[in-house]
Amino acid sequence: MEQKPARVRVLDAAHELMLTVGLARATTKEIAKAAGCSEAALYKYFPSKEELFIQVLRERLPRLTPLLRSLAAEPGRRTPEENLTEIARQAALFYEQSFPIAASLYAETQLKRRHDEAMRQMGSGPHLPIEELDAYLRAEQALGRIGPDADTFAAASLLLGACAQRAFAYDSTPTGERPPLDDFAPRLARALLAGISVADGRR
């Protein structure tokens, strides 16, 4: 069987290690070893572990950012309810899969500070989906499909906050099961629209 390209192997190895041991403990040395290449080869494709982390989020997890950007660029393609349902679905999956990767950062304060600073320098960070969802809602507002007085930033924060909460709030329950996504996403979209839409937010 033909071997995968080195960049793909590095991303696969990084994703697996970040899921199993956490971002803090997934060193570039271990990632390179798991990918079957040298650290020098890893750095050829990814100048830092932070850059590698960002690419894992972009290429191995549900594609939340492209969805938000495409909707903001072309609002009105479907109803707000349909769009927000799909956003909630992708956001819930994204947070469910990304939290196990990033959670270990919160146990090491200095490492998290360095990581946060690197994210800022690269123009990335967990605040971006909120800003992008806010941009989409403002675009819908301009079309008259979201109420003119609606606080779109608060609405974006509420929707994504609920999706993030679903990712970790249910692990300690007796069953450890999260609310079913096919039920959670449309209910969340409808609840949000009840507060920000015009007379018929589903149009």
Automatic annotation (TrEMBL):
InterPro entries: Homeodomain-like_sf, HTH-type_TetR-like_transc_reg, HTH_TetR, Tet_transcr_reg_TetR-rel_C_sf. GO terms for molecular function: DNA-binding transcription factor activity; transcription cis-regulatory region binding. Residues 27-46 bind DNA. It comes from the Bacteria. Coiled coil: none annotated. Keywords: DNA-binding, Transcription, Transcription regulation. Residues 4-64 form the HTH tetR-type domain. This is TetR family transcriptional regulator. The gene is rutR.
